[in-house]
Specification:
This protein is of the alpha+beta class. Helix content is 25%, strand content 15%. The longest helix has 10 residues. This is Ferredoxin. Ferredoxins are iron-sulfur proteins that transfer electrons in a wide variety of metabolic reactions.
């Protein structure tokens, strides 16, 4: 499992998540930040610092949020 950054990040892009990630798996994309699902170690450090609560665990994604996992996978070239 990995964490996924969802729609609230699209308008925020604050970036606190990047500085606390111990494995550097979060990168800035053109419209939001993305978490690399292959590198994420599920530590949850990013969740607590996100000012807009945009980060959720992959298994907690709603059907409306599932495209954000696909966007992350595409961003990192995983699909």
């Amino acid at each position: 499992m990995a964490f996924v950054i969802t729609s609230p990040c699209e308008s925020e892009k604050a970036g606190e998540c990047v500085t606390v990630c111990p494995v550097d798996c979060i990168e800035e994309g053109p419209e939001q930040f993305f978490i690399n699902p292959d590198i994420c170690i599920d530590c949850g450090a990013c969740v607590s610092v996100c000012p807009v609560d945009a980060i959720v665990e992959e298994y907690e994604l709603t059907p409306e949020e599932e495209p954000y996992l696909e966007k992350a996978e595409k961003f990192f070239g995983n699909i």
